[in-house]
Write a structure and sequence with these properties.
The chain is an alpha/beta fold. 39% of the residues lie in helices and 18% in strands. Strands 1, 2, 3, 4, 5 and 11 form a six-stranded mixed β-sheet that branches. It is globular, with a radius of gyration of 18 Å. The relative contact order is 0.21. The C terminus is likely disordered.
Length: 287
């Protein structure tokens, strides 16, 4: 069986999927045709039902949960890894909260935008940009502040930009939970056996990446543009962790908390389907 597989060119995704793409592990008879794209493009693709298996933002998952179900492997979820709000000039949080500033966001359906909306519900003057274009827009003065994700959190200070708030810290203070950023979903219409095989393969791929950190470096570097190796590994270490191997009970609770908060704020529609792939009864026990 051949499945279409969507993920981003960011180091954390390339690190996790390298062993699948380069066939370093047992794929259990599965074949994958990969498509690499920006996370908001992946979100849009999921809304259209284009991929069999895809990375997406947890915020976006709420809008296509009728078609996809979340795998336990492959998530970007953790602590101290949230999006940042940054600016060129010093800006107080109160100024952002007042709602008069022009804010760049990395996509309407990103979890970053969802968290920004929870923290600053009156800040609605938003401009959607590809995440890599937010820093240049701030430097040009096109926007007053921007919500940054991915490797930009490691580079903004070197460009003279300033942090306004860490939205991950905001989330953790509000909920006590790790922050769910992105996950891997699979088409609900596929046979259950296939869903569980994909989950096992993905878990095996992440485990291989952890056990053989240098093996994925050529693939990660090929898609990291001009990012230096130190930043690449900071990026990987920030977003790939034990939750990427398996969400476990704590990870699932964090995702449920995110959905509950979003529904309570009227940001996402009510959930009509189970969020998580049902256990197959095989594999390692949950935490």
């Amino acid at each position: 069986m051949t499945l279409s597989l969507g993920f981003s060119p960011c180091p954390n995704d390339c690190f996790m999927f390298d062993a699948i793409v380069n066939r370093r592990i047992d794929l259990e008879g599965l074949e994958f045709t990969e498509r690499l794209a920006d996370v908001e493009a992946l979100n849009t693709s999921a809304f259209a039902g284009e991929a069999d298996v895809t990375k997406l933002s947890y915020h976006a998952y709420a809008y296509c949960a009728d078609r996809y179900v979340l795998l336990d492997a492959g998530s970007a979820l953790g602590r101290n890894c949230g999006p940042l709000v940054i600016s060129k000039r010093p800006i107080a949080r109160e100024e952002v909260a007042a709602g008069r500033l022009k804010i760049a966001i990395p996509g309407r359906y990103t979890t970053a935008n969802f968290l920004f909306g929870l923290a600053f519900p009156d800040a609605r003057n938003k401009t959607e940009l590809v995440f890599s274009e937010i820093e240049p827009a701030l430097l040009r003065g096109d926007v007053d502040a921007g919500v940054i994700i991915h490797e930009n959190r490691f580079t903004y200070q070197s460009k003279g930009l300033k942090k306004v708030i860490d939205l991950g810290e905001f989330w953790e203070t509000e909920t006590g939970s790790p922050i769910p950023l992105g996950g891997i979903v699979i088409r609900r219409s596929l046979p259950d056996d296939v869903k569980h095989r994909v989950n096992r393969v993905l878990r095996r791929s992440v485990e291989y990446a952890f056990a053989n950190r240098s093996a994925s470096l050529p693939y990660v570097r090929a898609h990291a543009q001009e990012m230096n190796e130190e930043v690449m590994y900071k990026h990987i270490d920030l977003y790939v962790n034990e939750y990427s191997i398996d969400l476990g009970a704590e990870g699932r609770r964090a995702v449920e908390t995110l959905f509950d908060r979003a529904r309570g704020a009227g940001i996402i529609p009510p959930a009509e389907r189970a969020l998580f792939l049902e256990s197959s009864g095989a594999g390692a026990p949950r935490r």
